[in-house]
Amino acid sequence: MADDETSLHLTLSWGHRSARPQPFVLRISGEELNVGKSRLVGAEPGDTLADSTARTHAGAGDVDGLSCTLTFPDRPVATLTNVHSLWRYLWYHGDPEAARRLQSDPAYRPDSRHLTITLDETGTSGFTLTADQILRQRSFWFPELDLFLSAGQPPIAFADHEAALRPRQGLRVLDRVLREPEASYAAFTNRWEDMGSPTFTNPHSIPPGHIVGLSWDGALHKFGVDRLAGVQNDYGKADEFRLALDFGEFDGLAQARLTQRLTEGLPIIVTTFAKDGIHCEVEQLVRPLNDPSAALPGNSPMVFLQRVRLTHSRTDTRRIPFRLYLDRGSEASMIQEVSPGKSGAFALMDAARRTLLVIQGRTLPTPRLVPQDVPASNQGPGRRHRLDLEVPLSAGGTAEFLVKLPSPSVVGADAKARTALLALDFRKSREAVLRYWTRHLQRGARFEVPEATVNELFRANLWHALRLPRRHGPPTPGTRIDLPYSNFAYDQVGIPWPVNQAVYVDYMLYDLRGHHDVSSEELAAMYRVNQEPNGHVGGFANWGVYTPAMLYSVGQHFLLSNDRASFDRLLPPSLRALDWCLGELRRPGSDGPSIPGLVNAPLNDLSHDSLPWAFNQAYFVAGLSTFGRALHRIQHPRASECADAANALRATVQQTFARASVRSPAVELADGTWMPYVPSHALASGRHFNLWYPTDVDTGSLHLPRLRALEPNGPLTTYLLQDHEDNLLFRQWGAINEPVYNMQGTAYLLRDQPEAAIRTFYTTMACAFSHCALEPVEHRWGWGQYFGPPSTDGAWFELYRNLLIRELDDDTLLVGQATPRTWLADGQHIEVQRAPTYFGEINFRIDSAANAGRLKATVKFDDTRRPSTLCVRLRHPAKQLIRSVTVNGRRWTDFDPAKEWVQIPAPRAARYEIVASY
Questions:
Q1: What pTM was estimated for this model as a whole?
Q2: Are 407 and 301 in contact (CB under 8 A)?
Q3: What is the dihedral of CA 789, 751, 597, 506, to 10 degrees?
C-alpha cells in the first residue's frame, strides 16, 4: 500500500428488520475509491456474488452480508468557504443537532472519494457515502432500506449499534408527531414570535417592518398601518405621506403596553396603548371619498379615517398632550396653516389650498403647527410637520377626535370633494367598510370551524388579496391592472411574479373560494401582459415555472368553476402556452448539461442556471396534467396529448431523480439513522450550501410530490419529508424561510397522514402571519422581511380547504380528512357552504354529540356532477372507533373503523346524512 492511501475494512449486512424473506440486490462501486477483496457473509445456497453485485434472499431472521476492503487516497477535507448567509443563519439560530448534521454533510465538507451502493437492477435505489463520511461516522443504519454498514476492524455488530442509538429512538420529527398530542395553534404561537409585536426584532427587516395594508378592491391609493398605528403610503407611490402619533410624555410609543387587532377579521384595525396612566384606542379604516357602494375606478380618491379615544381613570381633570406627525412628501414643505372650520374641524392646508389632513373633535382647541426638518431620504430632503394638541379629560372621562387623511390631497377648488371629506362620519364609514367586505365574502364559499382565529384568518385572506391589484381605470375587462407581489415590496408595475399570482392567489384563494370572476380577470391580464409571441410567459428573473403554472391555474380555474365562457376566453393563450411547454420538453439542452425529456430552465431569483430543476419539472407535470383534465371535460382534441406528455414526464422524473438520489451522499436524521438524499435538480449530487436556501428547500424537490410528479407514498417522498422535517425546517418547527412554500402539508394529505398535515397547518398559521393582526409575511427569518403577500394566504387556505374537503385522483371526494380532533369536541360543529370542487359546489356540516357517542355529517351536492365515491372521515375527539353507521336512516356497512371513514360508492342522491355511533 502506498503511503498516500488509506485502506479500510467495510462490512455490509441486510435483512435485519424485514418480516419476510425477500430478494436483495446490492452492487458496490467507487469513484476515486477502490473496492477489493469482497466476499459474502452468512450466505445460503442460491446467494451469489459476481462482478461486485450480491444477490441474496434475507429477512425473517436471516441476515446476509458482504465484506470488502476500501482503498482511497489519503487527503484532508476542507470545509466550504462560500456558504450562503441563509444556511449559516439556519445553523446558528436553528436546532443545534440539525446544524451539527448539516455541517457534517459533504456539501459543507466536499469530498470526491465516493462509495455508491445500489439496491436494484436499474440503479434507481441506493445511496452514496464519501470517504470523509465513512471515516468520521464509521457505522450507518438505513432502516428504510434494511441495510447496515460498519467500517473498520473489528466491525461494529448491528445489535451494538442499535443499542447505541436507543437513547435517540423516536427523535425523528414525524415519529414525535405520532406520539405527541395533536398540534394546536397555541402550541406554535408559543414558539414563533409575534411579528406584529413592538418587541419583535428582525435584524434583516425591510422598512417599514410589520405593516398592514388597507385599501379598496383594485384602488391605486393604498395605506399601510404599522405596529404603532402610524400610516404611510405603499410602494406604488400614487401619493406620498406618513402620519404618526404620540401622547403623554412624548418618549415614543414602543415602550407602551400595546395591542393590535382586526375587527371581525376585516380591514378595520384597532390599536390600544396604555401609557402614563392614559388608555388610548386608535381605530383605523379606509374608504372611498365618494359612494363606497358603487363599482369604482382604481384611481378613485380614498380616505384614511382614524378615530382616537383617550381615557384615564384618575380623579383629576387633565389636559392630555397629544401629537400628530405628518409628512406629505413634496407637498409637506408647502404646508402653511391649520384652517379652523365648523364644529371643531381643523384642516391642514398648503399654499395651493389643498387639504392634506383634517382633525375633527367637539372640544379640541386649535392645534399648534410646528414644522420640522427631517433627514434626507431616497426621495430627497423633506419636512415633517408636528401638530400639538391638548385634549381635555375630565375625571374618569373619555375624549374622542377623528383624523382624516385623503389620498390624493383634496384640491381647494374642488368644493364638493372638500365638503364630502368634512362630512364623512366615522360610524357610518365603519358600517360601510364592514358591509363592503362582508359582501365580498358572501359571494364566495363559507368555512366555519370552532376556532376563532382560523375563522378570522379565513375572512382576512380575501381582502388581503383584493387590496393588492392596482387597476388603472374602471373594473371592466381589458383595463390595465398591476399585480405586484405585495403592496409593500418590490416593483409595483406589471405582473412580475405570475406563478405567485396565478397559482397562490387566483387558484388557491379565488377559485377555491368561488370568486371565479376575479380569477378570470387576473389570468387574462397575466396572459395579456406577460405572454410572448411564442407562447412563453415571462416575469421577473424568468422563472422556469411561469408558463406551466399558467396552464395549471387555468386548468384549476375551469375544473372548479365549470365556467365554459371564461375557459373559452383563456383557451387561445393557454394553447400557445401549451405549445411552448411541449416544445421545451422536446428541445435538446443547448444551454448546458441536460437530460432528455426534462426541461432546462432557470429556477428563481438567485438561481439563474438553466438546469433540470425539480421545481420546474413539478409544474410542467402539474400544468400538463391539470390543463389536460380541463380539456378532457370539454372533449378537446388535445386532451390526450396533454395527458400523455404529463405521464411521460412523470416517469422520467421518477427515474432520473431516483438515480440522482443514488449518487447523492446520504443524510443523517435526528434519531441517528441514515437515509438517501433527493437533490434539487436531476444532475445534482447533494445539497447546495453555496446557493441560497430556497434553491434546495423553498423551491426544491419536495414540490415533486406536492404536484404529483412523484408518487406520494414512494420512497423518494419519504426521504424528502424526513430530511426536511429533521434537518431543513427551522428549529424542526415544520416551516421554511418563505412559508408560502410550506409544501409538505399537501404531501402529508396525499399520504393520508392527518396528524402531520395538521401540524403543518398550525405552524404555517403561526409563522406566516403576525398573531395580532394576521398579516402575511414573505421571509420569516434570516432574510429581508416583507409583509402583505396574499400568496402566503393562498398557501395557507389551500391546505385548510384540503384538510376539510379534497378531490382524489380517482375522482373520490374526501370530506373531513384531517380535521383537528378538538374541532369535533362534544357540541362543536364544522360547516362549509358553497365550496367549489371538481363536482360542483358542495355543502357539508359535521356535528358532534361525542359525549352521547355520535357524530353526524350532512353532505349536499348542488350539481349533477358526482364523484366516483363519497368518503367522509369522522375524527372522534377521543380517538374512539366507529361501531355502527347509518346513511340516510339506513344501516350501512361500508365503513372502516381504523381509518375512521365511511364510503358511499357512486353517490347519486343530492343529500346524504351519515351518522356514526361509538
A1: 0.96
A2: yes
A3: -30
